[in-house]
Amino acid sequence: MADDRLPAATLNSARWLQRAAGALTWPLNPSDYLGALFADTAGGNAVVERIGHPTPDAVTLTLRVPRGFPRHRAGQFVRLGVDIDGVRHSRCYSIASAPERDDGCIEITAKAIAGGRVSAHLNELLRVGARLQIDAPAGDFVLPEWLPERLLFITAGSGITPVMGMLRSLDARGTVPEVTLVHAAPDAASMIYGDELAAFAARHPQVTLHRVYTRAQGRFDVSQLDAVCEGWAGCETWACGPDALLQQLEDHWQQAGIGARLHTERFRPRVPQAGDATAARVQFLRSARVVDGRGDQPVLDLAELNGLSPAHGCRMGICHGCTATLKSGCVRDLRNGKTFDEEGDLVQICVCAPIGDVEIDL
Amino acid sequence: MSHTHYLTDAQADAFGRELDAIRDEIKASLGESDAAYIRRMIRIQRGLDIGGRALLFAGVLPPAWLAGTAMLSIAKILENMEVGHNVMHAQWDWMKDPKIHSTTWEWDTACPSDQWKHSHNYMHHTYTNVVGMDRDVGYGILRMSPQQPWRPWNLGQPVYNALLAGLFQYGVALHDVEFERVLEGKKTWRDAWARLKAIGRKTGRQTLKDYVLFPLLAGPFFLYVFSGNLVANFVRNLWAYTIIFCGHFPSGSHTFSAASVENESRGRWYLRQLLGSCNIKGGKVFHILSGNLSHQIEHHLFPDLPSNRYAEIAPRVQALCEQYGLPYNTGSLARQFGTTTWRVLRLSLPGGQSLEPQLA
């Protein structure tokens, strides 16, 4: 964050120095040696500064990001790498803090998911001072450069987090337009950012806040749209929450012929259960090919049957010459049944078969 | 020699299943202490590297030069063997740390990592000790098996061997160019040239670092730093050569014909890895400095299991060998290196069939 404020001459000589130092430490980077000398930075590049529990099953982390970390756009997410039992697990979390925040920290909020290894770790085991690996912000669920006159936000559960980043950003810039926000949670006690949203709405008369407590009121659905936001079709709308809600909203906006005015952000889709010879579909992203196959066919065989020729070696899982990056979906190692389902998993395609829909970076 | 001698098909399958079970068990037990091990090893290695290079700047004082050179030598040995070789074998990929990953690692030696991963992880580890397929059998310049026909130029073998030991990193670098296959017309010059260019770039950067930049940084002490780096690279070459040649060529090690590996089952693949590999006995520090290639048998059975686990696997593999009546080739460094060197000398002359292991 500091780098874009330095004069060009300083930047140039800094770059020159960096190159000279790089030639001395080749094939490593100078920072690799600094890590060995001073701090044990193995766990990652971000440090947990503060841990809060806004609700019993959610955790809010304040993370100190490394110097020079790119500034995010309000609504974007980061991929967090968390080491558990020696294995780095990656998950995406929306940034709930505003890009205008200038203390070198960002904030994320994670809800504990039943059986979720990473969210459980963040909720229960993480301590202040721990290190996490953080990648550059990404995502196009963001506010446009030129703000529309009326905004509608529909969120549920931790779906509020990217919208929180947007609202805080609007607040920090002092340009809060006419906003309607519908935010759903089981009850008041489990509503993330409920109090802050109420305070925000109280400060800005042009903001209308509808807090929906589903345990008492039932789920929010499109039939209530007119009641909460008259003229919703004229609003630019952002929605984030469970898949069922988003699907319903998307259908509704499509039917109204204004699909382009609705922006949605989804959490990770569920992975289908493994079955042996069940039909599967593999998308080879780099070669832009979609291939139908079965759950007992190695991805490498599938690729070759369809005219692709990915790099490989032993075809028996020893040499790792065929390793490719899993972009989405799930594959199964045919040798032991182990499944891989995280974006960024490196899988041996000569022994891994697809389960359901899979995207591979090949 | 064929590896059908020792076990029936059913026995080989059972043997394979037992080894698979060991592999799965170790894989399932990997955790935080293993991750801490490799990270600690990397920190120690980098600390020794920095310390050694710093001391060499004071190399005008003989004790500083000696200590600096020794530290840098050990750093380079660890970097190549316990860290680099094993990381590039994907032993630590399970951690999913992109900084300690086979797909991203580059090591401090003349050989580009992608070429090495092909010639070593694929060619050598898949076709271990198969004459004509595993190019580590003699690196294309030495006659290491009596199955290889004798040619008059094999008479110079003791000299080539000494050169290979001293210049080992460059020998390894040129390995994947496969000159002899280019000459035989099995590989194009264009392909060879592309590999040579990559090797040239890598060697250039290595040379710039060790023999130009660091010495220049020392100003008037240029020669002390230059000579310290030269010796460290030389020591690392000799050590790597010694350990690696002891892995497959000591007396009792088997070589195989290409025909014997056709349609090879997983159990027979394990058996061939066992029969073609040799361990070296030693203490904990020796094992680490050898990159745990002193557990060559375990490494060849499980090339992608983390090296810090080979020591605990070894007695289990040895017991399994006893149970199945299989040889388990292990011995002191003197025994293994002595018989390896004897093999090099003996096979420079025609014949040498007596070097083939006697079947029980």
UniProtKB/TrEMBL annotation, chain A:
<dbReference type="GO" id="GO:0051537">
    <property type="term" value="F:2 iron, 2 sulfur cluster binding"/>
</dbReference>
<keyword id="KW-0411">Iron-sulfur</keyword>
<dbReference type="Pfam" id="PF00970">
    <property type="entry name" value="FAD_binding_6"/>
</dbReference>
<keyword id="KW-0408">Iron</keyword>
<keyword id="KW-0560">Oxidoreductase</keyword>
<dbReference type="InterPro" id="IPR008333">
    <property type="entry name" value="Cbr1-like_FAD-bd_dom"/>
</dbReference>
<keyword id="KW-0479">Metal-binding</keyword>
<keyword id="KW-0285">Flavoprotein</keyword>
<dbReference type="Pfam" id="PF00175">
    <property type="entry name" value="NAD_binding_1"/>
</dbReference>
<dbReference type="InterPro" id="IPR039261">
    <property type="entry name" value="FNR_nucleotide-bd"/>
</dbReference>
<dbReference type="InterPro" id="IPR017927">
    <property type="entry name" value="FAD-bd_FR_type"/>
</dbReference>
<dbReference type="InterPro" id="IPR012675">
    <property type="entry name" value="Beta-grasp_dom_sf"/>
</dbReference>
<dbReference type="InterPro" id="IPR001433">
    <property type="entry name" value="OxRdtase_FAD/NAD-bd"/>
</dbReference>
<dbReference type="InterPro" id="IPR036010">
    <property type="entry name" value="2Fe-2S_ferredoxin-like_sf"/>
</dbReference>
<protein>
    <submittedName>
        <fullName>Ferredoxin-NADP reductase</fullName>
    </submittedName>
</protein>
<dbReference type="GO" id="GO:0046872">
    <property type="term" value="F:metal ion binding"/>
</dbReference>
<dbReference type="InterPro" id="IPR001041">
    <property type="entry name" value="2Fe-2S_ferredoxin-type"/>
</dbReference>
<comment type="similarity">
    <text>In the N-terminal section; belongs to the FAD-binding oxidoreductase type 6 family.</text>
</comment>
<dbReference type="InterPro" id="IPR050415">
    <property type="entry name" value="MRET"/>
</dbReference>
<keyword id="KW-0274">FAD</keyword>
<dbReference type="InterPro" id="IPR017938">
    <property type="entry name" value="Riboflavin_synthase-like_b-brl"/>
</dbReference>
<keyword id="KW-0001">2Fe-2S</keyword>
From TrEMBL, chain B:
<dbReference type="Pfam" id="PF00487">
    <property type="entry name" value="FA_desaturase"/>
</dbReference>
<dbReference type="InterPro" id="IPR005804">
    <property type="entry name" value="FA_desaturase_dom"/>
</dbReference>
<dbReference type="InterPro" id="IPR012171">
    <property type="entry name" value="Fatty_acid_desaturase"/>
</dbReference>
<keyword id="KW-0472">Membrane</keyword>
<dbReference type="GO" id="GO:0006629">
    <property type="term" value="P:lipid metabolic process"/>
</dbReference>
<dbReference type="GO" id="GO:0016020">
    <property type="term" value="C:membrane"/>
</dbReference>
<dbReference type="GO" id="GO:0016717">
    <property type="term" value="F:oxidoreductase activity, acting on paired donors, with oxidation of a pair of donors resulting in the reduction of molecular oxygen to two molecules of water"/>
</dbReference>
<feature type="domain" description="Fatty acid desaturase">
    <location>
        <begin position="64"/>
        <end position="330"/>
    </location>
</feature>
<keyword id="KW-0812">Transmembrane</keyword>
<feature type="transmembrane region" description="Helical">
    <location>
        <begin position="211"/>
        <end position="232"/>
    </location>
</feature>
<keyword id="KW-1133">Transmembrane helix</keyword>
<protein>
    <submittedName>
        <fullName>Linoleoyl-CoA desaturase</fullName>
    </submittedName>
</protein>
